[in-house]
Amino acid sequence: MAQVGVRRGGEAAVVPRPRLERSRSDRVIGGVAAGIGHHLGIEPIVVRIAFVVLALAAGFGLVVYLLLWLLAPQAALEGANQPRARILVRPSLGQALGAGLILAGVMLLLLVTGFWFGEELAWPVTLAAIGFAILWARSGEERSARWPLDAVLTGRVFSSRMLVGSLLILAAMVVFLLANTSLRAAGSTLLAVFVAIGGLALIVAPWAWSMGRDLIEERSQRVRTEARAEMAAHLHDSVLQTLALIQRSPEQREMVTLARTQERELRAWLYGRAPALAGARLRDAIDAMAGRVEREQHAKVEAIVVGDADLDERARALVSAVGEATLNAARHSGSTEVSVYVEVEEDAISAYVRDHGTGFDPEAVAADRRGIADSIIGRMERHGGSAVVNSRRGAGTEIVMRLPRRAT
Amino acid sequence: MTAPTRVASGVSVFVVDDHELFRSGVRSELSRSCRIVGDAGTVDDAVAGIVEADPDVVLLDVHMPAGGGRGVIEGVRTAGSKAQFLALSVSDAAEDVIGIIRAGARGYVTKSISADELVAAVQRVHDGDVVFSPRLAGFVLDAFASESDEPIDPELDLLTARERETLRFIARGYTYKEVASELHISVKTVETHVSAVLRKLQLSNRYELTRWASDRRLV
Asked: Is the whole model's pTM more than 0.80, yes or no?
């Protein structure tokens, strides 16, 4: 309680400084700069420029960057529950061009200031960098690039871009070896082997990286699912049983309602789908509606849904109409049990709301029961559907609603 | 489902549930119209007790440690008892419900069922009929709904139009009697349809059925 108060009181003043960790979502190389920026509360771009400048000082920035990359932990996967967001940001053409120009400028600066490290190194590295950039962009683009060799062999993702990227790196290797004949003369074939290995590593790295990330993500997802299943088993044995027990003592109406509400919510959480996806589906909307009527009217609503559909505007209208029918039944029929049945078929969604109450004569609807005409029949017809009321005195009521699904 | 017109005084019942309180509650409710011949809280006790007492109907909790309701049914069947099983559970997990029916239970009701309805369901199972609660009907319709896969054995893997219609009425909250009058058939015919569905549910090897159940459990 106290903590809540403090946070609310001094929101601007006492914001805990975030931990230093590499960012997943905002990254150019390893997410180090964004991580530092986030930690210190400054724009990542400032940190990035600082790194570049420091790198010019005899590579100091480069060393610091690599150290931080190794030492700082990576931020936890955000929103693994949500529909997966593209974590790897693919630079646009403009951004890539800009980065290239900046790089060229820096190289020119180095050349002028005399820090130049020699033609033999500069051109192969430039070539390799361009090739790598091309391959990298490729690997982030498609999930199917997960098993690169397999994909290439079956010809599925073999693209000109991959060819160009690989060729550039190969060319870099050749240029490097040719330009360093003196080195080669001094050394041995060992150098050639090293260069070949380096080049291959560059080609494969993007895929290896994204593959590793996928595996980690999958594992954490699985661990979460297992934890949930275990908790479901435990809660089932304790809380759900108790709630069922409370409902069997029919004296306290309020208590029984409360128990049923709790049971419904717990059940939805235990056996329903992941919370991030809930709320967008017809099944969840009907369940929520049933829970609401139960709570408000102290009635028992048995809602059964066969199949499922997206909750678009028309489906929402159907849920509202079904809700109105359920509310009517709970309020006026004199029966404390209402059956709701919704079936999603290929061409239409059908809904039935039935009670075993007193029933009424649909022809002689009282003025205060306009709800049926307006909220149910009218609403269904406005959305291209229909609603029929079947009721007889003494035999209960059933309202049948039907909503054709639009041909897609 | 209807009020117990036939008094089920002769039916002997055995209650299996690992919750003591629930067992005693059900015992006191049923003792007015049934003969309770025993109860048990674990799978092993249940198997031994049922074989010993030889009841007509066993009220069986789906979820129990060490084997669950399925363990009890399998143990008792191995011992050669002819007792009928009615599953009684708070679980809405489709996997559990379909699982216990496939293990051999003759029906499924939720624990929030009223005492009168429970007595009627026990009587029905004792008479050799099947008890489909609206929820079970919904599960079955869902499980047999997708016809994307080519059925291996159409006899077992598909519901007939009439069976589907019957299940739909049950899911809508109709009693067997009301279904019969709506479809202009006898109650006996309704029972025949429902029994046929139960048989298909138990015998079909449809890949869909298992996959569907595991899909529904957790995402």
From this structure: no
